[in-house]
Amino acid sequence: MISSSKLNQYWTDIYFHLHYPHGEKITHQVVRILQLIDKKDRVVVNDVATHLEISHNTASEHVKRMINKNYIEKKRDQNDERKVILQLTDFGKNVLHENTSLDEEKLNHIFSDMDEVEKELISKAFKLLSERAKSCM
């Protein structure tokens, strides 16, 4: 049986060896905000404050800086014009991908040395873990 500490060790090894080289230098908080906007529907500034456990004013300042860097943009909610929804720009999506995803070229190289059973096993394990992770929020 795998322990959570062993799984964390495996994950950090995987990420350390297979992440993209970081081009755009961003903070961990910016990454977390980009992930929040990417993974949730209709994120507003108050959601950022709640997610990061910071004040609304601090969250608003983070959002302003991220808009200035073209990572995100504001859009009026079509259902409620009073609400301003945060969305990733194409550049923001790219920055998020490069700072949180595994390098697909490196992955493809690893997968090329695996047989179909190994690939399927990894795929099923990651899919199951992903599905269960989504139910924790």
Automatic annotation (TrEMBL):
Pfam families: Staph_reg_Sar_Rot. Residues 1-131 form the HTH marR-type domain. Belongs to the SarZ family. This is HTH-type transcriptional regulator SarZ. It comes from Fictibacillus norfolkensis. Keywords: DNA-binding, Transcription, Transcription regulation. Signal peptide: none annotated. It comes from the Bacteria. It is found in: Cytoplasm. InterPro entries: ArsR-like_HTH, HTH_MarR-typ, Transc_reg_Sar_Rot_HTH, WH-like_DNA-bd_sf, WH_DNA-bd_sf.
